[in-house]
Amino acid sequence: MTVEPPSTGPILVERRGPTTVITLNRPHRNNAWTGRMHAAYRQALQDAEDDPRCRVIVITGAGRSFCVGADAAALDRHAERGGYDPGVDETSLANPGYGVRDDFDADFAHHFGLRTPVIAAVNGAAAGVGMVLACYADLRIAADDARFTTAHGRLNLPAEYGLSWLLPRMIGVGRAMDVLLSSRVIGAGEALELGLVNRVVPAEDLLDAAVELAEQLAGTVSRRSLAETKRQIYTDLHRDLRSSVEEAGALLDEMMGEADFGRGLASMTDRSARPFAEPAAEELPR
User: Fold this and answer.
1) Phi, psi for residue 148 in degrees, rounded to 5
2) How do the domains of the chain map onto residue ranges?
3) CATH 3.90.226.10 fits 11-217, yes or no
4) Residues in the chain, pLDDT under 70
5) What is the pLDDT of residue 69?
6) What confidence score (pLDDT) does residue 88 get?
7) Cβ distance 283 to 52 under 8 Å?
8) What whole-number distance in Å separates Cα of residue 33 and Cα of residue 18?
9) What dihedral do alpha carbons 173, 174, 176, 181 form, nearest 10°?
């Protein structure tokens, strides 16, 4: 597996074979979110999306926390201004995932427009915007010491960044009401019971488990199948059943004519095969 050294700054980027690991990198502040981190994170997503070698993205936090929410200094600045202060020139931000649907062209919702699947490897605390980020990932693996909280209620704030839309669809209305109205802390075990996370693993195994899942997806599912299935799921949250069935039929006819259908078909007799572990010619870097 090819491992490239990580970058530096508030966001670290490291490529591990077909997986791009994006690490929130302010451990001295428990990865508290700032405008600079927000800008760097969006650029890292865009770079991974544009990289033909990247098949899956894993997001995690450096140190003992995933992300504890907005940095207190940023919150003080918001209070001083009497409103939201992004701290960066928002017109210069990268727009990964934009242009797929108008619904997705917004902060964090743009994750739904990415073709590349995103796995959140949640270590330690995921609070406020940290919980938002985890929820907008496609899959979530939590360390056994992970903790989740929306935190907004204790700060006289509304549910942030569309969580009031997303959580009821993820875990049901009643459970979402409990989580959002109370702003209480939820441990990893309860998060698994609620359906907030897909898996809980020992903290020391977290990143390896996330990368292993990413490699499994990249090796056994074609790049286009991953992208189309992800897009279908998020699009179907906004449309009727008939439209979903009809589009699936059209995609079926189209994708069965592609080389990757033959690659997958040839592997069906060997359940241990990973037909897509090696990228197709069109995916190789030029």
Assistant:
1) -125, 140
2) 11-217, 222-283
3) yes
4) 1-8, 74-89, 279-286
5) 94
6) 62
7) yes
8) 27
9) 120
